[in-house]
Amino acid sequence: MRRTYLILGAMTLVACGRGDEGVVADSPAAAAPALTFADFAGRWSIQLLSDMSDSVLAAYELNATADGSSWTLTPTGREPIPIRAAVAGDSLELDAGPYKAASPPNVDVTTHAVSRLEGGMLVGKFESQYALAGGDSVLRGRVRGTRVP
User: Fold this and answer.
1) Are the C-beta atoms of residues 113 and 124 closer than 8 Å to each other?
2) Cα angle vertex 45, ends 43, 51, to 5°?
3) How would you class 53 by CB atoms within 10 Å of its CB: exposed for 0-12, middle for 13-18, buried for 19 or more?
């Protein structure tokens, strides 16, 4: 019995003495450096998609600056909408509004989206809140974006 305890104790010491080299390399923080506004700078073709299908609910052009100032989201055939952008870790957060919806007309909308870069594309989720006379309505879906050359 004493011999078993000695063997288990020795194995524990060996295991504890290996160091942390493998632990640090496998941690998520070490694997991917935090992104910056510069990683998203440029023009993007953005589509808002249904959660249930690939139906395109709306299309926009995102114009992003490398310093995070003066970002805009331009709906097809409409004036640019100023947006607030923030980068946190591997995520890009966008907030727009209130702005006037195209449909239903003259309804105030606010939109919040969170995206990540995956294979050079922006992918994520969005939520738009419509201020309707009979009560607010919320639309949720997916974001898909590709860089415009």
Assistant:
1) yes
2) 140
3) exposed
Please give the structure tokens belonging to residue 113.
């989206």
Element (H, E) at 43: strand 42-50
Place of tokens 């702005």: 99
Question: What residue type is 56 in one-letter code?
Answer: V
DSSP 90-116: TEEEEEEEEEE-TTTTT-EEEEEEEEE
Predicted model pTM: 0.74
pLDDT digits (tens, 9 = 90+) for 36-74: 999 999 999 999 999 998 899 999 999 999 998 899 999
Give CA separation, 92 vs 23, 34, 52, 55, 123, in Å.
27, 11, 23, 23, 10
Distance of CA 95 to the CA centre of its chain: 12
Q: Which amino acid type is present at position 127?
A: E
Instruction: Specify the CATH number for 37-147; select among 1.10.1040.10, 3.30.530.20, 2.40.128.30, 3.30.70.270.
Output: 2.40.128.30
